[in-house]
Amino acid sequence: MAKLGNPQETIAVLQKYGFHFQKKFGQNFLIDPRVLEKIIRAAGVTKEDFVLEIGPGIGTMTQYLAEAAREVTAVEIDRNLIPILEETLGEYDNVNVICDDILKVDIAALAREKNGGKPIKVVANLPYYITTPIIMGLFERQVPLDNITVMVQKEVADRMQAGPGSKDYGALSLTVQYYAEAYIAAFVPPNCFIPRPGVGSAVIRLTRHKEPPVDCRDTALLFRLIRASFNQRRKTLVNSLHNSPELSFSKEEIQGAVLALGLSPSVRGEALSLAQFAALADILSAGR
Ligand code: SAM
Questions:
Q1: Does residue 74 have a pLDDT over 70?
Q2: Domain count, the chain
Q3: What mean pLDDT do residues 47-75 have?
Q4: Can you give the residue range of the structural domain that contains 272?
Q5: Considering the chain, what percentage of its residues have pLDDT values greater than 70?
Q6: Does residue 240 share a domain with residue 151?
Q7: What does residue 144 show for φ and ψ, rounded to 5 degrees?
Q8: What are the Cα distances from residue 239, in Å, to 252, 258, 274?
Q9: Are 13 and 145 in the same domain?
Q10: Which of 174, 208, 242 lies at the terminal end of a domain, its last residue?
Q11: Which numbered atom of ligand 1 lies nearest the CA of 30?
Q12: What is the pLDDT of residue 246?
């Protein structure tokens, strides 16, 4: 089987199998070898690694991963792609394809079975309609992770990497940065895919922190505060937290905590760093 990753081979495979793209599955296949190599390099895949690939499509990136990694498991939801993958990956004895919805797969169990519970790498050209649930699921379900290196919509990558004061900074930035260090490895234009997506894309690497970068006694409260602060972006932090149905602090309690942090009572959530949100959570929970 010829190496995929260029327009000619990709079109030949799609025609051979009479494959029809399904928009609902976010199918945009990569056709640029330089981008594929960049992804593998950014993920730092070596022959020691077990890699989980989400959404292999016709197996283009899977071929690159199979050559770089010790073992690859690829989870694909579209059963029409399975016969294609059998052919395109037929030569590799270190690849296993599972036909399932990634959101239903027990990835922690997979990491135990395939990698003895040691941190795994996740590499994917993600289906954009479920980027956030996939990434949050990996972090929140305690999957042992080394890094997640994924193609996402450019604006989502910008939000994940943004810091306080930037227009892109929000709940996604803070939540991702609580779990991982974000690094944008490449910007990728629409002409690197078939069919071309309507948006620009970026490869982002999220390297899991060994320890969270901030101490916080009640992380559930921390995440509730973060969500509430950005739900009403134009309101002050005090009003956003007071109005949130997820929280039950009085206005006086919130104002007191904000002042105790040395912040103005009219400060907005977008001005606070992760460390300041963690300190706010500690002050508020200590008052209860
Ligand atoms: N990796 C291929 C490439 O780079 O050419 C395909 C990437 S395409 C953007 C996303 C892939 O994810 C498609 O093959 C799609 O069918 C698959 N997919 C969509 N939703 C999925 C889900 N919930 N679980 C697993 N795979 C999914």
A1: yes
A2: 2
A3: 98
A4: 219-286
A5: 99
A6: no
A7: -65, 115
A8: 11, 12, 19
A9: yes
A10: 208
A11: 5
A12: 93
* pLDDT computed for residue 1 by the predictor: 66
Q: Write the CB contacts of 16 (distance below 8 Å, at least 6 apart in sequence).
A: none
| 208 contacts 119 by C-beta, under 8 angstroms | yes
Residue 217: pLDDT above 90?
yes
- How far apart are the C-alpha atoms of 231 and 240, rounded to whole Å? 7
Q: Alpha helix locations (H) across 81-130?
A: 82-88, 107-115
- What residue's CA is closest to ligand 1, atom 8? 27
Residue 10 · residue 194 · CB < 8 Å? yes
The candidate with the shortest Cα–Cα distance to 230, out of 247, 245, 249, 244, is 244
- Angle separating helix axes 171-179 and 219-231, nearest 10 degrees: 160
CA distance 275 to 228: 17
Residue 45 identity: V
**Tokens (6 digits) for 127:** 């289906």
Task: Give the position, in ligand 1's atom list, of the atom nearest the Cα of 53.
Answer: 1
- Whether residue 2 has pLDDT greater than 90: no
Do 47 and 71 contact (CB within 8 A), yes or no? no
Q: With 0.85 as the threshold, say if the pTM is over it.
A: yes
Closest protein CA for atom 11 of ligand 1 = 55
CA-based Rg of the chain, rounded to a whole angstrom? 21
The answer to whether residue 146 is domain-embedded is yes
Cα(102) to centroid(ligand 1), Å: 9
In this structure, what token pair is assigned to residue 51?
A: 């890699």
Quote the mean pLDDT of the chain: 96
Of 280, 240, 269, 281, nearest to 164 by C-alpha is 269
> Strands 71-76 and 180-188, how do they pair?
unpaired
Q: Whose CA is nearest to atom 20 of ligand 1?
A: 25
- pLDDT tens, 228-271? 999 887 899 999 999 999 999 999 999 999 999 999 999 999 99
The answer to whether 36 and 5 are in contact (CB under 8 A) is yes
Contact yes or no for 230/270 (Cβ under 8 A): yes
Instruction: Retrieve residue 193's tokens.
Output: 């895919």
Q: What's 164's DSSP letter? A: T
Question: Which one-letter amino acid corresponds to residue 257?
Answer: A
